[in-house]
């Protein structure tokens, strides 16, 4: 189906602007003029290679097959002839200089010396590129929610019961119909290839070995089918950003269902992107995207900075609302979970709409600063609508870093928890890193279970935790009155 | 009307003491002997130029027309003859050395790299003079209120509702009868010329472009009419310090009404100046005002230091009280708002006195340290007298730095908020800086609205915020019992 | 009455041990063998000069008259003949080397540049000797109470009332029958001569000029009569440590009554000395007391360190109890106030015993660490026994540093407050420093009064402060059950 | 009974692997092949000396008699001939290099300059080996419990009563039937020989002099009988880790009873070892155990790191449960106390099971991070089951560092408290250090008693402390519902 017409370098060189933009990718020549503005990673990076060979940059992020499955056939302009003399012109071959701090694998300490999730984070901060670090580690404005996500866990005390036979401690459970060995899953995060060439595939390999479910991002570096096919019998979920072009979303849902995915997690907390200032600033100072030499891309450097997260989210539909639940149900037979729910009020709505579960999440604190730490929302459910725990599967993510954090969520009714950034920092060491990280978390979780005196996750219950330090901050009403009714009441 | 009598340098030089003090300002010779002690900026700076040409220093702060509109005709002694040989005597021309750290425009980073209000503050701290920085950034004694003004906002969690169609988010509202594009206004702050030569005019230009209301200070660098005339159709308010000389205040109110101002904000929290130690200390160490070489001004360096804020407030009437509301109403037809109210008790009084609104404010923490953060006072109104929200317009200032701060105030019933220092730090880049700053705040506010799930400001309501962490500090009684009744009760 | 017998250096030199210890002080020769162990400043410093001329060291701390009024006539061995050749032997004259960091008056910044109490503290920390600094600034063990004394004031918000005519603000009040200009007094602190040669006299001079009452310490550097006689019409109080030798206390009470003192403050929170580790450590490292060359004093360097405060308190009677109130009443006609009361329970007892007042104090955090901050005890009185405010005068000390602190205490029912360390740091500049410090505090207090909207101290009342942040820590019962009744109740 | 067969170096050298492992210890040759894997200190340290003379290393930790009392007779291979020429081969004699930072006694400051428990801790941190420091000072994961153990004491205020005759203050009490001079005992901690060659014997010597009870660890450096025999009339307790091999525990209990021990403290909070990351990391980086040159020990460097605490606990039985109380009672006639109880629920169970006491302890924060600070558990007993105080002896350990901490526990019903790390840091100075440390604690305790106004420990009661700052975190229910009943309730 590929276009075999041979195209010479001299021809390619002419299409070097954002109005007329051709790129060579792995021996094929593509006209990306129309696609570029829709590129999840932003148009700038495409314009940077206008009229050049972008194979190396492309391969460092994307799977080979991604272009041919996503672009129109007519955009394939033909084959690139590597025998063409001009093709070896170093001037032409060499892309404009990009950020120099490369991933230095050699600089990483031996994997065995990493003994907790913070160790992985520390290594990542020193070994991935500055832009990648800014993109993953950043969060909304003043980082209040990001930090409270974790620190609120530390304000919950256990109430351990001793003198129980704790020889055995089983961490097995069932998530959305799938048997798993551990009550945590990989939360979806974009483009794992930024960290490791095998990206989501390496995550899948590590998770499959250890029996950990993986949720694949809409912005994954590989097509979903490519990832799932590497681990045929493994439980995968798919995270969906609903596209402004609903047909595109429908097509995608059909594809992932065919790819063997077991459930859909629809992200609902990002109708517009958050303001992640660290991400925005890297562009302003030094990011590669800024140094676009030959196109209108400079004009696209907007007043807000150079946020990768913001650029990437351009296709997300801000009109998504509860009335779309019907459409979602029509578009897939898989269980549907809403990811990013932040109030008891919305969890009840989700229950009333018959959804299969919710992920209490604030997107790792990346979207709205001072949105509530997830553990606070979990406590809100316990207080205001405990019935949801028997009607839906309640998951928690944002801020989970320790086995104790996991156990606390489970004691308070969560079915399982998600971890996003920690898995990205683990895949820095490939599949082996993912396995080592999972073993660390398993060990922490088992130790915590034994030291509070339980043998299985079913035995976790609220009486094992003392949440009084947080209970003070848990609302006692749903807060659903609108301003009109509030003002009326206040007049009485 | 000007006095055309020509006056020679030799004559001017003789009037070089504070008992007999003439200055040249832009070709006119003025006798400022009587005016100097009433100078809002202090007498010292005038005495410094006694018998000299003060044009340069004057123009850096004030508008050309200010002298002729504020001084008596008889104080104009005549014209200064620049052809006079002695007029070019460098010894005479050159004023005594003043502070050397000048406003270095070149040192400012490009405006586009500033992405939040703290960036503007940081730039200002490095590029305005030390005295200007001390004057604007300082606050009362131990800075407890100044810091809590902001940090208390960070202790309020949102309760976002997801799955709402948030394609549209309108920030329009109506303040004191004026349609505006954004629910925040420029809080009055003295002498913007210290930061930028166009001062309040640059603020007006930026605000007019963006539809933001501006409140002009009694101590503005330009006469009100000069500012308002630059933006004829724009909503301006005027901040009034009531003068010990009430007739002066009446004249001023008539002028500002004629100048097209739409409302009066009467400052009530500064009957005496606060103790702003950073402002006081600059004099003690290095401020220009200290180096007065030739007059009694040295004797005016008092035991408290060199506070510009304190010196400037000398004319404010500490006897202002509720019985003056009648006088205020008589003196202007414009809506009257009390600025600086800090208790539910006083807000109720304001309502009972039929005032049009209040600004809950502690003067940015500049007057009484440990006065309550404004958000605490807003919560107090919600608890103790919610009826005021439907009877008056409630505004909030002090500590607003983020779009989330604004939205929280609006959820709790505020009509709009004021920002003072942030606008001064923005005008450091002139009108363009003001526009960029407003765009940043608009973007933060719109993002916050969308991420909590609302489309317009009317939809903001208390159920969208979790204020439990602050509710503990909100009084449950008005606290109006005096000591006698307290002691009597305690005897029971 | 002096002994005129002439004594030669050769004779004096023989009495150079702690078993036989003569010293020359200002031309008199004293046998201090019996007195040394009772010396409030410790025996070591006396033994250091055994057989030598101690005039210089003596005069740096004590008044000339102190020896003759405190020692037995028979201990005066005679006159010292300065014409004696051996008297000018530098070897004999020169005392063993003492600490080298002297009071460098030249190093002090100009008094006018000090604008708050912390400035005085900072200067003192740099200009008094290390031992003096350790003695005054130190507090018990982990400094928790010392620091909370101040920080708890910062957790009280004012509830200002605006639009009151605040032209006038009177700080006058009446303390224990004495009219004073300000509602604060000098809390007793030992040996002000360590800071300034005029010590308590300089304090008295400054206080008299400004109308501030002064409480003189049992361990003052001058006899009480010498201090009071310098300011005949000024209100002085006397702080009493009850002596193990009750007759000594009776004699002292008679003397101070004769000296014109107006009230007695009996310290009750120091039956044993607190553990002030900074004070203890200075000896261990470098203090002068350590370097006693010629006596058994070395053996007195005990295992606890070298605390001046501890050494000084050796004569205090730990058996003092409520039954001694009768004895106190018998021993003086003056009003009696208990200083150091720390519970509502004891304040009620004091009321029942008919005492005239109490000072809520924890000795500046110097005795028992985690004893309650005084403001907490004041709140406890408001909650548990408000009737005491109309039956006794309630004073507060420990941690007062700002005018706002004073006003908060007065709003909560205190009659006046005491300040100890701040006055010592002020007398570092002599009487002039004391006056400047008082003016600073007066200005802060008046400003606070005006900004909360009151004209006189009588108008202060609880409704002007929001103490909710501390109310959580105020007990709701007296806590007077003993363990037996507690255990019995718990069995029910 | 020893085997007198003479064995030459050449023979010994052959048994130099972990499959065939002989060591010389003090002239005896031992075959440790079978024992090594059960070695409480880990096999690695034994394999390190395979085929060599390990006397020096052995003696630095263990008592001479330990081997012969713990090993089978047949493992004694014979006598080592020191006259053997090869025995003086320095190559053979010298063990592989171990960690170089040795205990430098010279580096310690004079004992008299240490005035509180933190001083001892500081000296230990600088003078013991890095591995010893890591082992003793480390705690579980994020150190939250370790730090809160102490800081929560600092949030309790005293409510002192003054004007009591406090000349006398008796610290005597009775613990588990034994008269002691002080209400604190040595909490069990492993291998004191790491700190001082006389280890637990030096502790015993110091404690006996001062009348302080000592609890000996299962992992002590000396056999219990050797320790107790040095201080015949002193109260010792024994801490038991129940062995997977119950017969071994039974034998041990018989031995310690014979050795004169007065009570058994069964540790129940360590069925599995905690994750002490500092301890784990020392191996990973530099610890001696890592550098095992000639054996399979390297393979034992597992993925978790090199924790000494974890290695040492391998024999502990995780199946220990309440049904084993009967077995414990059968195995000893001594009083039995459970150590490590952390909930009111378990304390009640202990009472119902007829046990003699409990130690509220979280193992110094070393096992489960965010397990509750002991003082919180003590407050929970006061709230939920105060009847236990009259039915059992309640002890507290974890975080006691000051005399005030002790007194607070006693006021809240504890019979006595334990201190572990502080005593280890004290024995750094041998028995003399222990005595000095006890004197410091006694002085702090007596001072605290006097300053709150009591003469004996029986007078301590809850009314002397204000625990409101912690009461907020004390549960009001036992929390014994399991998840099933929780879910059922929530459905109602």
UniProtKB/TrEMBL annotation, chains A, B, C, D:
Domain Cytochrome b5 heme-binding residue range list: 4-81
Coiled coil: none
GO cellular component: mitochondrial intermembrane space
Domain FMN hydroxy acid dehydrogenase: 109-470
Mitochondrion as UniProt keyword: yes
EC number assigned by the record: 1.1.2.3
Keywords: Flavoprotein, FMN, Heme, Iron, Metal-binding, Mitochondrion, Oxidoreductase
Needed co-factor(s): heme b; FMN
Catalytic activity: (S)-lactate + 2 Fe(III)-[cytochrome c] = 2 Fe(II)-[cytochrome c] + pyruvate + 2 H(+)
Compartment(s) of residence: Mitochondrion intermembrane space
Matches recorded under SUPFAM superfamilies: Cytochrome b5-like heme/steroid binding domain, FMN-linked oxidoreductases
Mitochondrion among keywords: yes
GO molecular function: L-lactate dehydrogenase (cytochrome) activity; metal ion binding
Binding partners and assembly: Homotetramer.
Similarity comment: In the C-terminal section; belongs to the FMN-dependent alpha-hydroxy acid dehydrogenase family.
Name of the protein described by the UniProt record: L-lactate dehydrogenase (cytochrome)
Organism name: Venustampulla echinocandica
């Amino acid at each position: 189906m590929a276009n075999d017409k041979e195209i010479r370098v001299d021809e390619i060189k002419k299409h070097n602007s954002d109005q007329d933009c051709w790129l060579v990718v792995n021996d094929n020549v593509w006209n990306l003029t129309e696609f570029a503005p829709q590129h999840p990673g932003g148009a700038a990076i495409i314009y940077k290679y206008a009229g050049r060979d972008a194979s190396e940059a492309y391969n460092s992020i994307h799977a080979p097959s991604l272009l041919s499955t996503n672009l129109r056939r007519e955009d394939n302009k033909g084959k690139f002839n590597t025998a063409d003399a001009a093709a070896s012109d170093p001037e032409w071959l060499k892309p404009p200089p990009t950020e120099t701090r490369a991933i230095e694998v050699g600089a990483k300490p031996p994997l065995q010396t990493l003994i907790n999730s913070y160790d992985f984070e520390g290594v990542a901060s020193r070994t991935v590129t500055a832009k990648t670090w800014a993109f993953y580690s950043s969060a909304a404005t003043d980082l209040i929610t990001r930090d409270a996500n974790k620190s609120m866990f530390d304000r919950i005390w256990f109430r351990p019961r001793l003198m129980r036979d704790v020889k055995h401690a089983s961490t097995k459970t069932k998530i959305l119909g799938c048997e798993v060995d551990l009550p945590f899953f990989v939360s979806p995060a974009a483009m794992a290839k930024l960290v490791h060439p095998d990206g989501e595939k390496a995550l899948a390999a590590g998770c499959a070995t250890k029996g950990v479910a993986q949720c694949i991002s809409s912005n994954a570096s590989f097509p979903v089918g490519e990832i799932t096919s590497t681990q045929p019998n493994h439980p995968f979920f798919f995270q969906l950003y609903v596209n402004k072009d609903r047909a595109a979303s429908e097509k995608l849902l059909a594809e992932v269902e065919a790819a063997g995915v077991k459930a859909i997690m629809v992200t609902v907390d990002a109708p517009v992107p958050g303001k992640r200032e660290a991400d925005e600033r890297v562009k302003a100072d030094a990011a590669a995207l800024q140094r676009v030499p030959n196109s209108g891309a400079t004009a696209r450097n907007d007043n807000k900075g150079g946020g990768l997260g913001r650029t990437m989210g351009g296709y997300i539909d801000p009109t998504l609302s509860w009335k779309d639940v019907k459409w979602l149900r029509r578009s897939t037979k898989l269980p549907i979970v809403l990811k990013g729910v932040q109030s008891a009020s919305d969890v009840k709505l989700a229950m009333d709409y018959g959804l299969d579960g919710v992920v209490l999440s604030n997107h790792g604190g990346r979207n709205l600063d001072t949105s509530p730490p997830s553990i606070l929302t979990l406590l809100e459910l316990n207080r205001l609508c405990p019935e949801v725990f028997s009607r839906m599967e309640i998951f928690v993510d944002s801020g989970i870093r320790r086995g104790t954090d996991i156990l606390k969520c489970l004691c308070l009714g969560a079915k399982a928890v998600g971890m996003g950034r920690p898995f990205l920092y683990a895949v820095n060491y490939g599949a082996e890193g993912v396995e080592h990280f999972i073993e660390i978390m398993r060990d922490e979780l088992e130790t915590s279970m034994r030291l509070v005196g339980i043998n299985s996750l079913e035995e976790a219950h609220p009486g094992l935790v003392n949440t009084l330090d947080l209970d003070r901050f848990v609302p006692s009403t749903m807060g659903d009155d609108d301003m009109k009714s509030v003002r009326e009441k206040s007049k009485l």
